[in-house]
Amino acid sequence: MKAIVIAEPWKAQTQERELPQPKKGEALLKMLVGGICGSDLASYRGASAYVSYPRTIGHEFAAEVVEVGDNPYGIRPGMVVTGNPYFNCGTCYSCRRGFVNACVHNQTMGVQREGAFSEYFTMPVERLYDGQGIEPEALALVEPFCISYHGVSRAKVKPGEKVLIIGAGAIGILAGTAVKSFGGKAYITDISKDKVEKAIKDFNLDGGFVNDSREALDEFRKEITGDDGFDVTIEAVGMPSTFLDCVSAAASRGRVVVIGVAKHPAEFNFLEVQRKEIEMLGSRGATKADFEATMKLVREGFVDLKRLISRKYPMEDAEEAFLDMDKNSAFIVKAEFVF
């Protein structure tokens, strides 16, 4: 079979691999569609904080069950599924308290362990979820929706609260969608005008602006909140400057949620946290509850995840795909490999 491998930074390849054999408690899956995460692009660029090389990438997927034994989860051959790609150790303090997404020894598929971007792969049955009729192109994007939903859940967004999301990539747009599902008002910003417009038009967010200066942020904050500041701000980029913008734009007693994965530190005057009495919340991965909640929203038609898709590539064009995404990342919200 073939697999998409980042051999080293700036080198994506389609390589021949042995067909995997499922172990006890695992299912053999035939890959259908894979969503290309920002972390996959970061691995290609050599900018990931976690990846090791060479690595079969990919953790956003829709796949067909080819082979599976009897199990208590209802997973059967022929079923189209997605799955939770974060492998927790089960023994660390976080796991013992039930916070498995914050496992100290977490290994994410396609990052610290082999990923899903191969024609066939195996996965523990307990991590799989029946797609229940969700189209594969959308089902492959449930996992990033979970990432966003988990962050918004951490903030406990209430109806009517004003939330600013910094970053209009897939995670930021889906964070806005999650905010709307909780009854909040979602505003979004990015340096890309195209992405901001797409978020508002295709995902019914409440407004946004192009974040090309601190003055633009201040003006928008005053326009939307009357200079009160946002109840919640969400960092969905992973840069020091956008983290600082989130702190600046938050209201007194506001909440700041960090979803973006940063590789560089921020020089930060933490007096702002004390002065505003801000709640600082990290958000990592997602849980089974997040998968169940987001899949319900998709099945009920609350969001059309396919509207995120800007590009589709055959798996054989891995190198061309990553060159395209690297060059045109300002215009590509989400891309997928078709297997």
Short account of what is shown:
The protein has 339 residues and is α/β, with parallel strands linked by helices.
Task: Give me some keywords for this one.
18 strands; Rossmann fold; 7-stranded mixed beta sheet; alpha/beta; Quinone Oxidoreductase, Chain A, domain 1; 2 domains; 11 helices; 6-stranded parallel beta sheet; 339 residues; 30% helix; globular
Rg measurement, Å: 20 Å
Per CATH, what is the topology of the largest domain? Quinone Oxidoreductase, Chain A, domain 1
Q: Helix- and strand-based class?
A: alpha/beta
What general form does the structure show? globular
What is the typical, i.e. mean, pLDDT? 96
Number of domains: 2
The CATH class of the largest domain turns out to be Alpha Beta
Instruction: Give me the number of helical elements.
Output: 11
H and E string: EEEHEEEEHEEEHHEHEHEHEHEHEHEHE
Any guess at the CATH architecture of the largest domain? Alpha-Beta Complex
Tell me what the structure shows.
The protein is of the alpha/beta class. The protein folds into 2 domains: 2-140 and 304-338, Medium-chain alcohol dehydrogenases, catalytic domain (Quinone Oxidoreductase, Chain A, domain 1), CATH 3.90.180; 148-282, Rossmann fold (3-Layer(aba) Sandwich), CATH 3.40.50. The chain has 11 helices and 18 strands. The protein has helices at residues 38-45, 93-96, 136-139, 142-155, 170-181, 193-203, 214-225, 240-249, 271-276, 288-299, 318-327; strands at 2-8, 11-16, 26-36, 55-56, 60-67, 80-83, 86-87, 107-108, 120-124, 128-130, 162-166, 185-190, 207-210, 230-235, 250-258, 279-282, 309-314, 334-338. The strands form 4 sheets. Strands 3, 5, 6, 9, 10, 17 and 18 form a 7-stranded mixed sheet that branches. It has a 6-stranded parallel sheet with strand order 13-12-11-14-15-16, with helices on both faces. Strands 2-1-4 form a 3-stranded antiparallel sheet, covered by helices on one side. Helix 4 packs across helix 5 and helix 4 (142-155) crosses helix 10.
